[in-house]
Amino acid sequence: MTKEFSLGVIDLIVLVGFIGITIAFAIWKSRGKKEGADFFLGGRGLTWPIIGLSIVAANISSEQMVGMAGQAAGGVGLAVSNWQLIGSIGIVLIAWTLLPQFLRSGISTIPEFLEYRYTPGARAIMAVLTVAIYVIVLLTAVLFSGGLVLQAIFGIEVWQGALAMGLLAAAYTAIGGLKAVAYADLFLGSALLLGGALVFILGLNAVGGWDAFTSANTASLHMILPADHPALPWTGVVGGMWIVLIYYCGLNQFIVQRSLAAKSLKEGQFGVIFAGALWLLVPFVIVMPGLMANQLYADKLAETADAAFPTLIRELMGPGFRGFMFAAIAGAVISSLASMLNSTSTVFTMDVYKRLFHHEQDNDKHLTWIGRLAILVSIAIGCSLAPMLANPKFGGVFQYIQQFQGYIWPGVVAAFVFGLWSPRTPRSAGVVALVLGPIFYFILQKTADIHNLHFLLQVLIDFVILAVILGIMTRVNPLTEPVTMPVRHEIETKTSGKVYLAGGAVILAVAVFYAIFW
Question: 9-27+39-398: CATH homologous superfamily?
Fold first, then answer.
């Protein structure tokens, strides 16, 4: 993206007005008591439309609207949609399996579950890993990419844009907690999808219709790429991607926190499935526009394919609409930041501070203020680190996120898979998985060039090694009695037929898409 992108007065009014109204509405809806469960989990009263749209808004940020469209334009093509479409299947399976167990146990955070199933040490290790990954990797990457967006619009420095978005997200998150984040996402998630649909329609019209688009992009409209493809080989998709998505959809605090805040099991399940259904739109509202941009303006993308989506906005949209679309992109960044900040705050407060420093006389109000302080410290660290991603040695935002999140994916997934579905696995296995997972991944990272292993295959190998180790531990030293988990008796425990039907419809839709674009 370059400094060519600029907005007129009408665009600026729309951009500032939309963001301002959204945040004001979110703070207004979250007014009243905001302590304990009210601050961290929205009072456990979220309904399925809010949960679904909030997950979409938290998931889709500038990395997707800019980076995913850029990857499509830069050679990966439609196959980059695998992340969202397999995610749709994964999140439905999570709704059917993990979510009932999590809601029934009444946990506030994902690491909390590990203490009940394994040991306090397992909970502490995952909490520290989670906070570190969120602040050093995710927050930093989103702040940097958001700073690039504002640099393209206003010509300001990246660090200034990152600071502006970070402070805005921190402000309404600290004031209103998860409820404010979720209500803001009603606007931001809707704007993302509506704006993307508008870009798709305008782009399709510009290239001459669907037939002209498919004819010009025949080679790029395939979901399966060769095994030796450097960006996304099919071997990585069918192997390691599933491990990534089990973590992302089911064990990732900033996604799952909305489900944990559900009013009931049914509301949580429908909300998660609704998010999976909305993810089906991503190929159309983000990925295909990237291909259209390359078809129409290849000369303008010579410097960087990441300019694909913004180029369509600039070239095809008139005054007002440009402002709305840049508001949607900026809102996506702010929404993702707010979600990460709220989840970082929750994990730090409940799994680190409360466990190590909380005193009997401390109350929910005290913990809420600790959570707010954690938000401010997190954003300060993220803003300080964000400019470093401009250094070419990090290989860009996507590589930075993928490379460093790999340290947490295999170990966490292995710990939960055995903890949930292998009742005899010993308590010590949780710590073993969480400690050895990063060590094995580090070794694989250092030898990847020698073996020419894609990072998704590294994740798969790491997970398989851990599974073998945990399997041996279970065989050699099994628990004499399965662990008894806590139960919230007020929560329904049976998944309804309608939930299975809705999830099945999403999976069928994904299968049809793959059949068409195989």
Answer: Sodium/glucose cotransporter (1.20.1730.10)
